[in-house]
Amino acid sequence: MPNLKKIETTEAPKAIGPYSQAIVAEGKWLFCSGQIPLDPATGEIVGSGDVRVQTRRVLDNLKAVVASAGSSLGQVVKTTIYLADLQDFAAVNEIYASYFGGVAPARATVQVAGLPRGALVEIDAIALLS
Questions:
Q1: DSSP for the chain?
Q2: Strands of 22-25's sheet, edge to edge?
Q3: In total, how many domains does the chain have?
Q4: Contact at 8 Å (CB) between 89 and 109?
């Protein structure tokens, strides 16, 4: 049986379905669920129609989840970015680059037909524990 630990923090929005914010596997890998631009305090989407504002909120949420597990964005090895519109790619890249200095994680970016609550962007991550 694998060694799994659920990660939860109030610094990021609580899960809006039957999943965990993140899971630590075997004490060294952190698998983070996708974050959408929900304000942790209100549970409401921020930045309606503004992908830059939404991307900052998503990355702040992801940063909080990673930190609550004892890691940091500098330990993220892989992300996936889900965009409602691939035309937002450059704007998301600009914000994303400001969060990941040094060695940027491996990454995939895809356009999707829709995201929860009408979000424009969602990002998930895999990180090493510090």
A1: ---EEEE--TTSPPPSSSS-SEEEETTTEEEEEEE-SB-TTT--B-STT-HHHHHHHHHHHHHHHHHHTT--GGGEEEEEEEES-GGGHHHHHHHHHHH--SSPPEEEEEE-S--GGG-SEEEEEEEE--
A2: 4-7, 22-25, 29-35, 121-128, 76-83, 106-111
A3: 1
A4: yes
Range of the domain at 29: 4-128
The CATH number of the domain holding residue 78 is 3.30.1330.40
**pLDDT tens string 47-76:** 999 999 999 999 999 999 999 999 999 999
What is the pTM (predicted TM-score) of this model? 0.96
